[in-house]
Design a protein that fits this description.
The chain is an alpha+beta fold. The chain has helices at about 5-20, 65-80, 80-90, 125-145; strands at about 45-50, 55-60, 95-100, 105-115. The chain has 4 helices and 4 strands; from the N terminus they run αββααββα.
Length: about 150
């Protein structure tokens, strides 16, 4: 078992390693990107990656506090579902209006794998192999799709 500080250091080491590994890749628009903290340019639309003790997760999270506006974002993503899945090369799970860890209502489109453990350095290659192609594909998708969301900005 790790102390809170050790766990934090291991997570930070993983994300630093991931960042160094993916840093040479430019965005679909040709820019240097902080892949671990991807900016969509839209408040309440996030591309999140998480690595925990038993699972890893990558997803699009819609966090707008107004459920009706959040639903408009969901509807727009549903319009682009085929393009999203084609760009990703796989289908993802769609979960509308669920609660996050802090009790807020969010919607998300995501992919998860298990068993993987961010605290086990032997799992890091698998985690990086999981995250890298998916965040690059999300960026490629978003490069074209973001314009469909301008009216919601």
């Amino acid at each position: 078992m790790y102390t809170r500080e050790q766990a934090s250091q291991l997570r930070q080491a993983f994300w630093t390693t991931f960042g160094q590994y993916i840093a040479p890749h430019l965005s679909a628009d040709g820019y240097r990107t902080n892949w671990s903290n991807y900016k969509t340019g839209f408040k309440h639309v996030y591309f999140r990656m998480r690595a925990e003790k038993k699972t890893a997760y990558i997803g699009i999270e819609l966090t707008h506090p107004d459920p009706e506006i959040q639903e408009l974002y969901c509807e727009q993503f549903l319009e682009l579902k085929t393009l999203l899945h084609e760009t990703l090369g796989e289908e993802w799970e769609w979960e509308m209006h669920s609660l996050d860890e802090e009790g807020r209502t969010i919607s998300r489109i995501y992919r998860e794998i298990s068993p993987v453990n961010v605290f086990n350095k032997d799992d890091w290659p698998e985690l990086i192999s999981f995250f890298k192609p998916r965040i690059l594909a999300l960026d490629e998708f978003w490069s074209d799709a973001k314009y469909s969301f301008e009216a919601l900005k």
